[in-house]
Amino acid sequence: MRRAIFWTTAGLLAWAQAGYGLALGALRRHPRQAFAPIADDAALPTVSLVVAAHAERDVIAAKVADALALDYPRAKLEIVVACDGSADGTPAAARAAGADVVLELPRGGKVRAQDAAVARSTAAVVAFSDANALWEPGALRALVAPLATDPEIGYVCGRVTFVNPDGGTNQEGVYWRYEMFLRARESDLASVTAGNGAIYATRRDAYVEVDPVMGHDLKFPFTLVRAGWRCVEQPLARATERMVPDVEGEAARKRRMMSHAWVIVLHGGLLDPRGWPAKYTIMIASHRWLRYFGPLLHAVALVTAPRALRRLQLLGLAVALAPLPSRPKALLLARYYVLTQGSIALGLVDHLRHGTEAGWDPPEGTR
């Protein structure tokens, strides 16, 4: 029985981290309709581009300038900066930079700031971005193309590239490229299982207000799929965002993120497959359930492993966590993986011990 438990948990871990991606890559490709950016200005929908900002004085002017430089008819674009309790001069900087609407809100968290911006706007499409994310000029035309072309699509996420111009040890870029591969295949086959906060959009009538501690990145796609919408990725809608420079800072960022994600897992409906197509349920189980319960699976695999394999696991942990002055890339990836698994577990501990607050602060090194 012990050996069976070990090989079952090891198999689930292997499927979650590699097998699922290999299976998606091996499936015969049945691409959905290609969504080319819309060239005809008259066919473009009106858009409210929402930027939720807390203490973003140093970057908000550049973000508004980036939005104003988008290749999109100015008469159809409204730029809304929703300031979440920012006492650092963010509202004044946003107005001076040319934002159409600047909301000065009491501190309530990113989601409540986004809700307020959507309630204030009147456009057919609401798009969202982070204050430190920069979009390519044609990103918005590409982002709205699926919504303007297919009435069954309610949510579109673009493709963000994380950059680290100052160097550092963070391996998020490697992980993210793999994540983008999975997301593209999920989008082709059914719907994405998660998005990103840097660049995404919904129809106004598809937008839902969620608990303020539940971020849109994870909560929106599976919620909208349950409501009957398709949720897709548009790889032609591109943005860049600075990542945390070092792997330890990335682990701390993920720990804060996972405190919010666990609320969605435990209380937000992620574990409830009702209303999802069978194919999408398999994707959620493979990409989300097994990912978030990965630390538990690792613990079970360690306890139930044969002695030689247990020693091998412990040796791998020791090498990944050892305070070495420098590491080859393979060991950096191993350290990233171990710290990420730890962040998932610690995020759960934080949520269970202290709850999860709706407010957030920009991660160090990303502005």
Q: State the end-to-end distance.
A: 51 Å
What is the beta-strand fraction? 5-15%
- Order of helical and strand elements: HEHEHEHEEHEHEHEHHHHH
Q: Class by helix and strand content?
A: alpha/beta
The CATH architecture designation of the largest domain is Alpha-Beta Complex
| Low-pLDDT runs | none
* Rg, Å, rounded: 21 Å
**CATH classification class of the largest domain:** Alpha Beta
- How helical, in percent, are the residues? 40-55%
Number of domains: 2
CATH homology group of the largest domain: Spore Coat Polysaccharide Biosynthesis Protein SpsA, Chain A
Shape: globular
Arrangement of strands in the largest sheet? 3-2-1-4-7-6-8-5
The overall pLDDT average reads 90
**Main sheet attributes: strand count, strand direction, barrel closure:** 8 strands, mixed
CATH topology of the largest domain: Spore Coat Polysaccharide Biosynthesis Protein SpsA, Chain A
Q: How many beta-strand segments? A: 8
Number of helices: 12
Please give the structural blueprint:
Layout: H1 2-26, E1 47-53, H2 57-68, E2 77-84, H3 90-97, E3 101-105, H4 110-120, E4 125-129, E5 134-135, H5 139-149, E6 153-163, H6 172-189, E7 200-203, H7 216-226, E8 230-242, H8 247-267, H9 278-292, H10 294-304, H11 307-321, H12 329-354
Parallel strand pairs: 1-2, 1-4, 2-3, 6-8
Antiparallel strand pairs: 4-7, 5-8, 6-7
Helix pairs in contact: 1-9, 1-10, 2-3, 8-12, 10-11, 11-12
